[in-house]
Amino acid sequence: MNIKDIIEQKLSEVILNVYQLKDIKLEVQENKTEFEGDFTIVTFPLVKQLKKNPESIGVELGEALTEQTDIFESFNVVKGFLNVKVKNQLFVDNFRSVHNGFSTIDKKNATVMVEYSSPNTNKPLHLGHIRNNLLGFSVAQILKEAGYDVVKTQIINDRGIHICKSMLAWEKFGNGETPETTNTKGDKFVGNYYVEFDKNYKKEIAELVAQGATEEQAKKDAPIIKEAQKMLLDWENGDEMVRNLWAEMNSWVYKGFNETYKRLGVDFDQVQYESNTYILGKDLIQAGLDKGVLYQKEDGSVWCDLTDEGLDQKLLLRSDGTSVYMTQDLGTAVERFKDNNIQKLIYTVGNEQDYHFQVLFKILKKLGYEWADQLFHLSYGMVELPEGKMKSREGTVVDADDLMQEMYETAKSKAQELGKLETLSEEDKEVSYETVGLGALKYFMLKVDPKKKMLFNPAESIDFNGNTGPFIQYTYARIQSLLTKAEFGYKETADIVLNQFEKELIMQLANFKTVVAKSAETLSPALVANYVYDLVKSYNSFYQNNPILNQDDENIKQFRLNLSDLTAKTIKKSLELLGIGTVNRM
């Protein structure tokens, strides 16, 4: 429990004793003013209840808190705000409690499935996928730290017309080349043919338009799109040649994806493939018709009427009996709850799909699945670069691998410019460049609330000052250097009188578990990111204002080293929750 929680608990007890008022929660804030006191209690909610002025309530409460509890040293009242000074011993005891309980996790006995990434196999991962993967992976890490069991999953979109476009372009223009013969990463190799298809498709459309067709008609009649549509039918009918080509090209893509995931530092416990799940959900349709939840039109198509929910009517089965994405998602959700002992399912998908998930969750609820209330769409805003938006069909997407390489190169040139790694081996230097470069990328992505659209600026992200990954990693490295010089080992110390910098740092450290819990509840890694930045700022103030290695009093010196050690552990753990590594030298 942090000190603020302890104060709030004591405050409730005293309000009950003095005023016989239950369930009154007064706001307790850390005191950032020039007035004496560690915390400020806002008394105004009591004014209406007690029909007294704020000043007299502040004095009454202050006297009661100092007399009836053993944690307050003194108080003062300024314009109705009650400032309280907490006894030194409470901070010392709180530090020991936080230190001793740092590695303990209170298990929740509940399992959460987190879905993220879920790419198409017709192109490599791009900047948008980076935000998706980092968010999903970080949320999974945070949920684990908050005590949940977690299953990380993705469903790969490995079938459909877009896949056939890449396959057809390779068949027509590839001359038998492979990723190996061209020395190209597999996902990029296949993505190049997706772009190649689009170029040829546009060319054919232009030719048809020049011959007098409307653009809309030309898009339908272009020979290459008709060939792609036939290939999709052949795939659905199990044509052996088409299926073999599909399997081979997908294998190239998966190999490429896995290299990207490995460098990005994300992984999965389960992988599903749309080619296996697209037929799921059809049996649910019949059950829904039998229950009267769904209805059939004269043409045989099946719909769900959600107008009573403020939504529209949703097609679930076409008149020819083929399913749509929604049908498949219904079936996949049911299968996931059937095959896994999960209590919650979180979909990490961009906010352009908000409506889709609203509909999905409502239909599952109508079909009678109680767990539909435990489905969450972790909706996030799009990522843009200073140059603007990206388009995958036109090959103008910011490639995930290229971006990671750029971050590595930037970190390398920064480190060489600062000249701080000269004594390290080449291998250790490489680890440092990679950890710092990718740490900069990840932190910049995750410090922004997921719901917000964001502008990613690579140069700004790798600054060694301000709210950046390298700034936080540098503080961690500085503490490691300090502990090494001191030949640190944790030893219990006698009680010391703490100054304001030490108190503030202890309060920050005590907040870690509260922040993790809140971050797990809101599915926002940004809370952890901004917490660790505040912790680092607090430590740097402490470090600059308190001698440690030059401290003559051995007891104070050891306490400050203990404080530094716990700060380093908390920084490391916070960064791990964001998928970010640390280095001992920068």
Structure write-up:
The chain is of the alpha/beta class. Helix content is 56%, strand content 11%. It contains 23 helices and 14 strands.
**How many beta strands in the DSSP annotation?**
14
CATH architecture group name of the largest domain: Orthogonal Bundle
Shape: globular
Which regions have little confidence, pLDDT < 50, spanning 5+ residues?
A: 389-395
Instruction: Give the CATH topology of the largest domain.
Output: Isoleucyl-tRNA Synthetase, Domain 1
Number of helices: 23
> DSSP strand (E) fraction?
5-15%
Which structural class do the helices and strands define? Answer: alpha/beta
Number of domains: 3
Distance between the termini: 34 Å
Helix content: 55-70%
On the 0-100 scale, what is the average pLDDT? 93
Give, in spatial order, the strands making up the sheet with the most strands.
7-6-5-11-12
CATH superfamily of the largest domain: Isoleucyl-tRNA Synthetase, Domain 1
If you compute it from the alpha carbons, what radius of gyration comes out, rounded to the nearest whole angstrom? 30 Å
Determine and state the CATH class of the largest domain.
Mainly Alpha
Largest sheet: 5 strands, parallel
